[in-house]
């Protein structure tokens, strides 16, 4: 007896509720954009410049006391958050302190860090500083740009690749799904105010890759079925294809999520945000390959005459022999 | 037909085993690391029994390449430095001045008296008394220019000479500036490396980034601050004739002179000649030592040219003071007692033992050609790194176990085959990481975990396809074959797109993001390899042996 996420021979009509699902997706995107402009992302120092200091102490952290100790140093905006993690011992109390970019300095001066450390040690003599990170304004500005470039470049590269391998309609469908996933991920980061730093960009790009992976598998089947069922309605072909690949889609998403949840729970707080972005991305990416990419393809229509496969650049590797 | 020619089988298992062997050292990380360190030390400074024992701890015929642990896993310091390349322009102009002075003096009749006047630091302004001689003067100065030595600057000269009234303005040409920038950064990288090596930490990484930046990563060092102390000082040592001593901080040094503060005596300033007699570039060696009163000092020895200049100067100027200047501060200004012919001497000042040690290291490693500013820095404590490794290891194992169990529950025997391939896959990733000497970072571990999840995708695609093909029932052999054949297109497309994003991440990312992209890209390669060759070969071998009439996937 096999464990199965999806029963054999499903025959769901994925377009029955298309106005609702597609509408919900669009609404979620709009909400994300609104959140981005209204609330904004909780940028880390990678993008804002400034310094973060991680403190660790056997004594309980009193954020209020920390704040009071730092107030006389006149450091501007100081954010202090306590960090909790299942991997910590009961005698491990960790906090993260973020200081904004100091006026007129490329990077924070060692004197500032020393005075800050000294101030905290008056509150708690056992406190240690396992990590200190500082980013100057010049670099943070550049990092923002490279990040935007990286996301844009990967979307373009993928657009081009799919256009090469399929038809342009597929490529548009895939990219709409991609933009959907990236937007929703940024939206959730705005909503939950999780720190958005350079590694999250890496997660975003991975989501781009994963979401695509999913979409491409569905599209690949669509292409195959378009050849097989020449007379069938496009909507039917899409439905059949999604149903046929549904088992695989769920299976892969599930194993990936299984692995990621392991990392989320046990991997420590340093990469938790990163793993969260990926988990979210995979859920959204799986959804979008079915409920966003396919409706776009349906709306755009597709060339049905596949009798001359060499035209239009739709190359296939299916005859690659292993 | 499920036919695999013999040579292909041999090749697949061969490649797999070789790469897996490369992964083996990582299982015995501590022992192999000691072995590698010991071998290196024996090579450079001879054998001791302890080192030999360490070296013998790992057989030398086995591969000994390890996956480097990134700073976030090992602890250490990271700095992003910007080299102030423009500093060098001023030095070049100062170096040019004596030459310009000499050629113009030789033609005093046409150009009249000359003197250097103040201008921007990267320009040399020379005023001549007889403006009618401008054309001739400019011609003479132009005669000093040399062709630019660089690939891009072929055909252009190193300096540009222009006239403004009675003033000649000399500056570096754009091509020369670019060539100079490049040399300055290269030199800085070299000197930073020498300084870090002098301190002797393990596997520091010092790389040029972009036009004028240097990324410095030193594992095991206590803090970025410590690292900055080591590499942040230019350590430019020069010996200048002293013009006078003053206590006025705002005194006018006069043309051609510099006003420099004293390092130890508060409020005291020296006015010294701008052009040094000798500089630290001409040092052969520097060692910490003690002066005749037993106070810490630094002894030094010049190379032959430096020794000659130093000897000539001390011979001609007995009785007058000269200043020993380090980074624009006067360490001391002793009076020359005697002719010093041998080219060696001693620097005394108010040093602690540590400071004299440090100065000797800096002088030996050489001065930085330009100052550096620090744009980004990071210190990671070793305990945090250890915690991260521990958490990463547990998370990876749990993720691994969960996926293995789930695959077996879903696909039975075929799931077991996929699991063998998955285990091989992770081994291959580590083997390849060791082979290319990549650095494993925390996001890199996340990349591996993600790969574990996604690696089964190719197998899932194939297995699902085989299930479908089984329904049309043309026998298990045919179903397996068709399953692989038809899933191939989706496998290639799906993985290539992910691979594209990994490549873009690598190209545009830096630091931890790069570490992630490397493991992701390698993970894609190995998972495709294991899915379409290793799993398939296992299935074929099983099939040949059992010849089942029906299969269940």
TrEMBL record, chain A:
Its main location: membrane. Keywords: Cell membrane, Membrane, Protein transport, Translocation, Transmembrane, Transmembrane helix, Transport. InterPro entries: SecD/SecF_arch_bac (IPR022813), SecD/SecF_bac (IPR022645), SecD/SecF_CS (IPR022646), SecD_SecF_C (IPR048634), SecD_SecF_C_bact (IPR055344), SecF_bac (IPR005665). The chain crosses the membrane at residues 20-45, 143-164, 171-194, 200-222, 249-267, 273-298. Residues 117-301 form the Protein export membrane protein SecD/SecF C-terminal domain. It is found in: Cell membrane. GO terms for biological process: intracellular protein transmembrane transport; protein targeting; protein transport by the Sec complex. One of its GO terms (cellular component) is plasma membrane. It is a multi-pass membrane protein. In the C-terminal section; belongs to the SecD/SecF family. SecF subfamily. This is Protein-export membrane protein SecF. It comes from Tropicimonas isoalkanivorans.
UniProtKB/TrEMBL annotation, chain B:
It is found in: Cell membrane. It comes from the Bacteria. Residues 185-242 form the Protein translocase subunit SecDF P1 domain. The chain crosses the membrane at residues 487-508, 520-543. GO terms for molecular function: protein-transporting ATPase activity. GO terms for cellular component: plasma membrane. Part of the Sec protein translocase complex. Interacts with the SecYEG preprotein conducting channel. SecDF uses the proton motive force (PMF) to complete protein translocation after the ATP-dependent function of SecA. Forms a complex with SecF. Part of the essential Sec protein translocation apparatus which comprises SecA, SecYEG and auxiliary proteins SecDF-YajC and YidC. Belongs to the SecD/SecF family. SecD subfamily. This is Protein translocase subunit SecD. One of its GO terms (biological process) is protein transport by the Sec complex. The keyword Protein transport applies. InterPro entries: Acrflvin-R (IPR001036), SecD (IPR005791), SecD/SecF_arch_bac (IPR022813), SecD_1st (IPR048631), SecD_SecF_C (IPR048634), SecD_SecF_C_bact (IPR055344), SecDF_P1_head (IPR054384). Residues 261-370 form the SecDF P1 head subdomain domain. It comes from Tropicimonas isoalkanivorans. PANTHER family: PROTEIN TRANSLOCASE SUBUNIT SECD, PROTEIN-EXPORT MEMBRANE PROTEIN SEC. The keyword Protein transport applies. Signal peptide: none annotated.
């Amino acid at each position: 007896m096999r464990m199965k996420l999806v029963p054999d021979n499903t025959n769901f009509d994925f377009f029955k509720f298309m106005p609702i699902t597609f509408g919900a997706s669009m609404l979620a995107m709009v909400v994300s954009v609104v959140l981005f402009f209204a609330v904004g992302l909780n940028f880390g120092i990678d993008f804002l410049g400034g310094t973060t200091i991680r403190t660790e102490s056997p004594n309980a952290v009193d954020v209020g006391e920390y704040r009071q100790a730092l107030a006389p140093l006149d450091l501007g905006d100081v954010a202090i958050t306590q960090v909790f993690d299942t991997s910590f011992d009961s005698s491990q109390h960790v906090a993260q302190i973020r200081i904004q970019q100091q006026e007129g300095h490329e990077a924070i001066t060692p004197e500032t860090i020393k005075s800050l450390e000294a101030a905290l040690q008056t509150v708690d003599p056992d406190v240690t500083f396992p990590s200190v990170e500082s980013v100057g304004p010049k670099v943070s500005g550049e990092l923002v740009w490279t990040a935007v470039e990286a996301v844009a470049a990967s979307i373009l590269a993928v657009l081009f690749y799919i256009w090469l391998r399929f038809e342009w309609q597929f490529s548009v469908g895939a990219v709409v799904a991609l933009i959907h996933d990236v937007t929703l991920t940024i939206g959730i980061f705005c909503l939950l105010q999780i720190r958005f730093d350079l590694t999250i960009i890496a997660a975003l790009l991975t989501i781009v890759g994963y979401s695509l992976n999913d979409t491409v598998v569905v599209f690949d089947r669509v292409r195959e079925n378009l050849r097989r069922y020449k007379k069938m309605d496009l909507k039917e072909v899409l439905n059949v294809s999604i149903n046929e690949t549904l088992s695989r889609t769920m299976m892969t998403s599930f194993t990936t999520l299984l692995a990621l949840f392991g990392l989320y729970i046990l991997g420590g707080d340093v990469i938790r945000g990163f793993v969260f972005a990926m988990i979210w991305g995979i859920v959204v990416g799986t959804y979008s390959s079915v409920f966003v990419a396919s409706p776009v393809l349906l709306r755009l229509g597709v060339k049905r005459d596949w009798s001359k496969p060499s035209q239009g650049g739709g190359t296939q590797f299916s005859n690659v022999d292993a | 037909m499920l036919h695999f020619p013999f040579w292909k089988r041999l090749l697949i298992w061969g490649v797999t085993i070789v790469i897996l062997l490369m992964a083996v050292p990582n299982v015995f990380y501590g022992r192999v690391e000691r072995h590698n360190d010991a071998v290196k030390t024996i090579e450079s400074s001879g054998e001791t029994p302890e080192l030999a024992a360490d070296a013998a701890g790992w057989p030398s015929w086995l591969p000994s390449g390890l996956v480097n642990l990134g700073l976030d896993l090992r602890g250490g310091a990271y700095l992003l430095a910007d080299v102030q390349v423009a500093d060098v322009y001023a030095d070049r102009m100062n170096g040019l001045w004596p030459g310009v002075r000499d050629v113009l003096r030789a033609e005093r009749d046409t150009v009249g008296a000359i003197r250097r006047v103040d201008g921007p630091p990267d320009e040399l302004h020379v005023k001549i008394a007889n403006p009618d001689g401008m054309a001739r003067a400019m011609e003479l100065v132009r005669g000093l220019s040399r062709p630019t030595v660089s690939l891009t600057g072929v055909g252009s000269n190193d300096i540009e000479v222009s006239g403004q009234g009675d003033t000649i303005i000399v500056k570096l040409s754009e091509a020369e500036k670019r060539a100079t920038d490049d040399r300055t950064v290269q030199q800085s990288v070299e000197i930073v490396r020498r300084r870090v090596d002098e301190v002797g930490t393990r596997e520091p990484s010092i790389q040029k980034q972009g036009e004028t930046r240097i990324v410095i990563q030193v594992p095991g060092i206590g803090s970025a601050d410590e690292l900055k102390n080591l590499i942040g000082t230019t350590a430019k040592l020069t010996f200048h004739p002293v013009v006078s001593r003053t206590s006025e901080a705002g005194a006018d040094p006069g043309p051609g002179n510099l006003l420099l503060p004293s390092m130890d005596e508060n409020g005291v300033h020296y006015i010294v000649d701008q052009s040094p007699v000798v500089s630290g570039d001409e040092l052969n060696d520097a060692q910490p030592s003690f002066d005749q009163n037993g106070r810490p000092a630094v002894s030094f020895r010049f190379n032959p040219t430096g020794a000659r200049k130093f000897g000539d100067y001390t011979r001609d100027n007995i009785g007058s003071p000269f200043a020993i200047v380090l980074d624009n501060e006067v360490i001391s200004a002793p009076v020359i007692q005697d002719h010093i012919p041998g080219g060696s001497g001693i620097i005394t000042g108010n040093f602690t033992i540590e400071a004299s040690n440090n100065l000797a290291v800096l002088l030996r490693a050489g001065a930085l050609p330009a100052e550096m500013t620090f744009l980004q820095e990071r210190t990671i404590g070793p305990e945090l790194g250890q915690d991260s490794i521990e958490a990463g290891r547990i998370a990876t194992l749990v993720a691994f176990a969960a996926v293995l169990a789930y695959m077996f529950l879903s696909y039975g025997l075929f799931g077991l085959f996929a699991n063998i391939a998955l285990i091989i896959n992770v081994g291959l990733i580590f083997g390849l990481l060791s082979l290319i000497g990549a650095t494993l970072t925390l996001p890199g571990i996340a990349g591996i975990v993600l790969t574990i999840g996604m690696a089964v995708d190719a197998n899932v695609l194939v297995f699902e396809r085989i299930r479908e093909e089984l329904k049309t029932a043309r026998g298990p052999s045919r179903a397996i074959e068709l399953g692989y054949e038809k899933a191939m297109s989706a496998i290639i497309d799906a993985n290539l797109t992910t691979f594209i994003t990994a490549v873009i991440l690598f190209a545009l990312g830096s630091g931890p993001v790069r570490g992630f992209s490397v493991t992701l890209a390698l993970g894609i390669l190995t998972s495709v390899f294991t899915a379409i060759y290793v799993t398939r070969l296992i299935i074929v071998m099983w099939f040949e042996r059992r010849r089942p009439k029906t299969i269940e996937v």
